[in-house]
Amino acid sequence: MTLEVIDISKRFGAKPVLTRVSCRAEAGGITTILGASGCGKTTLLRLVAGLEMPDEGRIVWSGVDITAKKPGERDVGLVFQEGGFYGHLSVRENLRLSMNRKDRRKDGASSIIAMAERFGLQHHLDSRAETLSGGEGQRLSLARSLIRNPRLMLLDEPFSNLDLVLQRQLREFVFDRLREFGKTSVLVTHDHQDAQAADGTVVLLEQGRVAQIDTWEGIYRHPKTPYAARLVAFLEPICITGSMEDGASGRHFVSRNIKIPVSGAVESTSEREYAQLYYRPEDLEPNDGRNKDACITGIAERSFYQGGARFCILRRESGERLTFRCRNGGCPQRGETVRLGLSGVDPILIWPDDGEIILELPQ
């Protein structure tokens, strides 16, 4: 059962929130709607749930247009960041109230016990829901949504109110359960770690428009816009603005004192006045500066440890600060002159309007 969002637009007053958004969630998979705060991702989820109505476009579920259907007619399960349960009731009562009436009469007691065991809540069945920890509360919210067997699951920032350890534990748990139940699921998040763990299609929203649709790895390796390059980066990427030039020695990307030879059919026209070259900090390392035209030079300011590696902040003569990864030789000392080699590293070239081209730099 596939969910299709087709040319959806939504305004609140005069403010456009979503503009001609189209995407799809494949049957049985987890599709992530990823974007910064205010990009329209929660509004998109509410439109799919029927809690808001679009100004334009259609929502199609399993071949049926559900755009005008009420929330109760869409057969969706919802999980929100603040949780969804009755705190004054027991876990057992919360699960029982979430069941369809027919299932409740048929085998309600055994279904509740089975669901509680699947979600590690069997020892809390008679405890008031308000006494649960944050992670247990989110597990209860998911169990309540799944116990009535909805065809579509919608999750809005379900991990954002938890500490980092609980986030990691609950991500794996929730995604495993969704796959176990075979549910078509849509996850809304601003955290790229959620998108990575979901391991499905990622719909990247930028100011209410679709910026890119791909897997997490596809967006990370081949971002189509500067926004995409920055949003999926673990550290701020190094951006160099310049232009393409043809000469007797071939084609080069040129920016101030940087001149980098490139290969491949990269067109350069008068309409394209500039391009942006992006490097990830984890891809760069100091070199001996043999190719001085393909180096970034600066002064080491300080280093820090993050994500299993040490990084150094480099200050260029212009005052711009860049970050690069320290390698086996250790980090340079404060005040030391450093040259970062660019040759042999695959950067991302982004034209302002035309998407991206991956450059293959000569070794």
For this entry, give a set of tags.
elongated, OB fold (Dihydrolipoamide Acetyltransferase, E2P), Rossmann fold, 363 residues, 8 helices, cell membrane, translocase, transport, ATP-binding
The portion of residues forming beta strands comes to: 25-35%
First-residue to last-residue Cα separation: 48 Å
**Element pattern in H and E:** EEEHEEEHHHEHEHEEHHEEEEEEEEEE
Predict the CATH topology of the largest domain: Rossmann fold
Class based on secondary structure composition and strand pairing:
alpha+beta
CATH fourth-tier homologous superfamily of the largest domain: P-loop containing nucleotide triphosphate hydrolases
Q: Could you say what the CATH architecture of the largest domain is?
A: 3-Layer(aba) Sandwich
Low-confidence regions: 268-272, 359-363
Please write the CATH class name of the largest domain: Alpha Beta
Arrangement of strands in the largest sheet: 6-7-8-3-9-10
Please bin the fraction of helical residues. 10-25%
The tally of strands reads 20
Number of separate domains? 2
**Radius of gyration over alpha carbons?**
25 Å
| Arithmetic mean of pLDDT | 83
What coarse outline follows from CA principal-axis ratios? elongated
Q: Enumerate how many helices there are, as a single number.
A: 8
Give a quick account of the main beta sheet: strands, pairing sense, barrel closure.
6 strands, mixed
GO molecular function: ATP binding; ATP hydrolysis activity
Protein name: Iron(III) transport system ATP-binding protein
Domain ABC transporter: 3-232
Organism: Candidatus Kentrum sp. SD
